[in-house]
Amino acid sequence: MAARPNIILIMTDQQRFDTIGAWGYDYMTTPAQDRLVREGLSFRNAFCPGATCVASRAAIFTGMYGHNTGAYSFDHWADHRNWVEDLNDAGYHCVNMGKMHFAPRDVAGGFHERVIVENPTSKHLDNGQADDDWGRYLRIHGVDRPNDRNLSDPEWLQKYQGVPWHLEEKLHSDVFIGDSALAWIRDYQSEQPFFLQVGFTGPHEPWDPLPRHLALYEGREVPPRIAREGELDDKPPQHAAHRQMHATTTHESVIDMYSPDEEDIARMRRHYYAKITTVDEQLGRVIDALEERGFLDNSLLLFCSDHGELLGDHWMAYKWLMYDPIVHVPLIVRDGRRDRAGEEIDDLVSLMDLGPTILAAAGVEAPSYLEGRSLLPYMEGPGADFAPREWVYCEDNYQLMMRGERYKLVYYIGQDQGELYDLERDPHELWNLWDGAEHHALQRDLLAQLLRWLASSTYYNAGYRRQRSRHYGMRWPTPDNAFLHGAKGHPVPRSFDL
User: Fold this and answer.
1) Cα dihedral sign for 9, 12, 13, 14?
2) Domains held by the chain: number
3) Distance CA 97, CA 57 (A)
4) CB count, 10 Å around CB of 316?
5) Are 351 and 46 in contact (CB under 8 A)?
């Protein structure tokens, strides 16, 4: 029997899909990600299951969408079982370095070891103590956690979150995460296979790259924002409210998107891109360390981000909405045991597929309630028996998104307004077709399909609750199943795609 592979999941925070140099975005400097593109399989149409950090990560790791876990914002979700625990039970040594966004944050969650790092702007606890391992590291070096710079800097709004790192490089949160991961990789001596999750905090705002990385982008042409005049008049009112909130509140993401000119947008983007380069450098160090220890050739390495960022597109910044710059994310899979180097997959995939993929690679049967499906057939090459997804789904608070190759529908729960885009004719989602009389039939058909998915998903995950309570599994309709009751439930299908 072949040795089980080590599995490494490296996740950035808030990285758009169009930020990898080797994917054709030549304004980016990303040598480590470029290496993964050369050596791995690029999924060019990967989408996240939530438009914010907690919503996305809770869905990814539990294998269930927010309507079944209740995790949309900073909600507790760590009380749900996640597939890391399945790896743990199967004999993997499980390690988390950096951001997981567990809520509450200090739980084990199936990990044997954790170095906990949250957002750089996370607040102190009531007792004045830093609330994660990075904060304690800063205190050891006599430095306060750089919180609430927006409250102390009178020119913050004019900087559009672009504020280069002002302390020693080693104190940067992503450098700390990289150093922690390197120390663990170099010290690991067991023959036991491991699962290593490395969660970088960048490029989440504030966009505080190392100054030497920012220098690489000085004067570099970057893409302009994508927006049209009067666009927000045709969108649900929550979009305008989103912009207003970020311009007028004092939370960590405060930024005024009412008046930036193109140079302001370019400056913001250069800082954001430079922070990706800062993270990329640490990614490269982690890959090199794995290679030096001889781990890389017997490892499945997955690289992705939890969600993206608007960067001024549609007259807004940040996340929480369902535009592609937010929900379309990087995903690269490098399997040292298979030769799919440099290939691309254009099929729709979801980050919900990460758990089933990782469990399949480990030889662990995936729990029936997981709503993703393994991507390993893609690693087997052309001819694999695998039906591509027709739709991907994303959920965040009152919004439900269903996206196919041509159409995207966003349903606002309990409201008459929504969003409908023809991505073939309008790839940048500038024209909302929701209220167009000529599109009412299409809107109704897509909405009915979305709600069928929602009902199926809710029932599907009831199997999780029954499993936890040791009840029988849920019945799933089959052509030969005429019984509505009985001692045993029929197995729930591993995945479904209405």
Assistant:
1) negative
2) 1
3) 15
4) 24
5) yes
Residue 432 domain-assigned? no
Residue 327 DSSP class: H
What DSSP letter does each residue of 204-260 carry, written as one string?
SSSB---HHHHHHTTT---PPP---TTGGGGS-HHHHHHHHHHHH--STT----SS-
Q: What is the CA radius of gyration of the chain?
A: 22
Kindly state the average pLDDT of the residues 403-409: 98
Distance CA 209, CA 459 (A): 45
Single-letter code of the amino acid located at 331: L
Is 106 part of any domain? yes
Strand-strand pairing, 392-396 and 399-403: antiparallel
CATH number at residue 303: 3.40.720.10
155 belongs to a structural domain: yes
Q: Are strands 46-47 and 328-329 parallel, antiparallel or unpaired?
A: antiparallel
Six token digits for residue 405: 């190759």
- Mean of all residue pLDDT scores within the chain: 90
Distance CA 144, CA 139 (A): 6
Residue 431 in domain = no
Looking only at the bridges linking them, the beta strands covering 407-412 and 392-396 are: unpaired
Q: Which residue range(s) make up the domain with 273?
A: 6-386
- Annotate 456-467 with three-state secondary structure: HHHHHHHHHHHH
Closest CA relative to residue 181, chosen from 283, 278, 101:
283
Answer for the pair 104, 78: CB distance below 8 angstroms, yes or no.
Answer: yes
Residue-wise pLDDT for 3-62, tens only, equals: 899 999 999 999 999 999 999 999 999 999 999 999 999 999 999 999 999 999 999 999
Q: Is the dihedral of CA 178, 180, 183, 188 positive or negative?
A: negative
Total-model pTM: 0.94
